[in-house]
Design brief:
The structure holds 2 protein chains of 2 kinds. Chain A is mainly α. Chain A has one domain. Chain A has 7 helices and 2 strands, in the order ββααααααα. In chain A, α1 crosses α2 and α4 packs antiparallel against α6. Chain B has a single domain, classed as Up-down Bundle (Four Helix Bundle (Hemerythrin (Met), subunit A)). The chains are: A mainly alpha, B mainly alpha. At the A-B interface, α6 and α7 of A face α5, α8, α9, α12 and α13 of B.
């Protein structure tokens, strides 16, 4: 139970401030990225009309995710956003799966990762919104239906970032704590593999999907 | 009065709280199951034996949460947990945690059991599939009660004697309230989803695979606010707090638990509504399953937002205030 809430940090003094780096999270993120790069390399090597095994998986993922994006956005914008959506889903799904492997931790268990991805989606949504509607109409959107509601609209936008990132963080962190506590109670007999299967693979996939879908929905709300 | 008088009083109180709250939910759930069984038997009297059997099976699972409460009551009454100044709080909190946690699970797992009885009278040849689905659904609706049981046991057997009494008492009570109250909503919501699945299978047997998988998906998402409650209570139990005699830090910890616990009730029930409707309409039109699933997930995610705000406020109260 000692490993609960332990964070390995590297503190670097920089111009009078202390910069803290969460070493473990950075390492795990790099592992996920390395996995994805290798997968992408294998999927695109020796491409052919008759696809090889890895290419089939890659094509399946890409077509499904492109179709999902096109459902929410119009076709032109969907082509622009879809690569990001694919990357986001694959990164999150693989991050959530990583805890299943012994000695590795989910990078999404650290609030910094979901929060930065949430802010990324937020900035993108507003960028596309301003570009689609023009700056004037974009600002006017905050004054509707009455100008008094401006603070409420602003809080609503910030609440979106908070809810999307804390949802992922809470589910993954909660799952890993349940696995830890239950394993401790049953002396790591019988139950932990099933818990890992449920919280790591099942909940991990659902939460990655929900995060990706909500990012798409936020973009489509801003654009329309 | 010296300490052991307090400890004795607290163990009796904790046992009473655990059992009195634990009796509420299971009784309602079992009554609902029996009512549905009566209706089902009056519709098709020649199936009475089968319906009676599945009613008893459903009630046995529904009863589990009350048995957990009984177990904790027994431990509180007959086990010497410790004799530290913190012990009275631990005893009361363990009772509260288990009692509150079994309310929702009792009500929730009664719902699919009742729907299963009705389903058997409507579609007798599906009775095996219906029973399996009911067993899965009812037992998943019990998971939040199991979280409460786990937290109660951890609380009782954790050695807290080295922690300072002043803020730790609040953390312990907050931990119990957080997981106990947060168990109510998700369990009822999951029960609603499982009920819709039993209905759907009886109505459209050929879509049973899709319905069961959608039920599992909907229940997993509905569970998440219960998981947040567990997260907050584990943090409250295992984080060490600096000793202080001021009242504000202690109240912040207590309120963090209360905030997360009550905040999780609404989203749990709301997500259950969404899941049950999605399952129901997949049962009527299984060709739309893909779109319905996607809409359900996004809808549940949005209705979960308020629970997440509670989580954020609870975090702030634990780590910042």
């Amino acid at each position: 139970m000692d490993e609960l809430g332990k964070i390995y940090q590297l503190i670097v003094p920089f111009m009078g401030h202390d910069l803290a780096f969460n070493i473990e999270v950075i390492a795990m993120t790099w592992i996920v990225i390395a996995f994805l790069v290798i997968f992408a390399f294998l999927a695109t090597r020796n491409r052919g009309v008759v696809p090889n095994k890895v290419q089939v998986i890659g094509e399946f993922l890409v077509t499904q995710l492109y179709a999902l994006t096109e459902d929410a956005l119009d076709e032109e914008l969907a082509k622009k956003v879809a690569p990001l959506i694919c990357a986001l889903f694959l990164f999150l799904a693989l991050s959530n799966y990583l805890g299943v492997i012994p000695f590795l931790e989910e990078p999404t268990k650290d609030l910094n990762v979901p929060l930065s991805l949430g802010i990324l989606g937020f900035v993108l949504a507003h960028f596309f919104g301003i570009r689609a509607k023009g700056f004037k109409a974009y600002v006017k959107g905050y004054l509707e239906p009455f100008f008094i509601l401006l603070p409420l609209n602003l809080i609503g936008e910030i609440a979106k970032v908070v809810s999307i990132s804390f949802r992922l963080f809470g589910n993954i962190m909660g799952g890993s704590i349940i696995i830890l506590v239950v394993s401790h109670l049953v002396y790591s007999l019988v139950l932990p593999p099933f818990l890992n299967l449920f919280f790591g693979l099942f909940v991990g996939t659902i939460q990655a999907f929900v995060f990706t879908m909500l990012t798409t929905v936020y973009i489509s709300v801003q654009v329309k | 009065m010296d300490l052991h008088v307090y400890i004795n009083a607290a163990s009796v109180w904790g046992a009473a709280i655990s059992m009195l709250l634990g009796a509420v939910g299971a009784a309602i759930g079992e009554g609902y199951t029996a009512a549905c069984a009566n209706e089902a038997i009056s519709r098709s009297p020649h199936r009475a034996g089968e319906i009676f059997k599945s009613m008893l099976m459903g009630q046995a699972i529904t009863e589990t949460s009350a048995i957990f409460a009984l177990l904790i009551s027994m431990i509180l009454l007959f086990t010497n947990v410790g004799s530290d100044p913190i012990t009275p709080y631990v005893l009361i909190s363990a009772g509260l945690c288990m009692g509150l946690g079994s309310i929702g699970a009792g009500i929730g797992s009664g719902l699919p059991a009742g729907a299963c009885c009705l389903g058997i009278s409507r579609q007798p040849e599906m009775s095996d599939k219906l029973t399996t689905n009911m067993l899965i659904g009812s037992s998943i609706a019990q998971t939040t009660a199991i979280y409460s049981l786990a937290v109660s046991l951890m609380m009782l057997f954790l050695n807290l004697s080295s922690h300072p009494v002043s803020p730790t008492w609040a953390a312990v009570v907050g931990a119990g309230l957080s997981v106990g109250l947060a168990a109510i909503g998700p369990a009822i919501g999951e029960g609603m989803a499982a009920k819709a699945a039993c209905d759907g299978i009886a109505r459209k047997p050929q879509a049973s695979v899709q319905i069961t998988s959608l039920m599992l998906l909907g229940m997993a998402v509905t569970e998440s606010t219960g998981v947040y409650g567990l997260l907050i209570s584990v943090i409250l139990l295992f984080k060490s707090f600096a000793a202080t005699t001021a009242i504000a830090p202690a109240m912040a910890l207590l309120s963090a638990g209360l905030c997360m616990g009550i905040g999780a009730i609404g989203p749990g029930i709301g997500e259950g509504y969404t899941a049950s409707a999605a399952i129901k309409w997949t049962g009527r039109n299984e060709k739309g399953a893909g779109v319905i699933t996607r809409t359900m997930l996004v809808g549940q995610a949005v209705s979960e937002s308020t629970g997440i705000y509670s989580l954020v406020i609870a975090f702030i109260m634990i780590f910042v205030v």
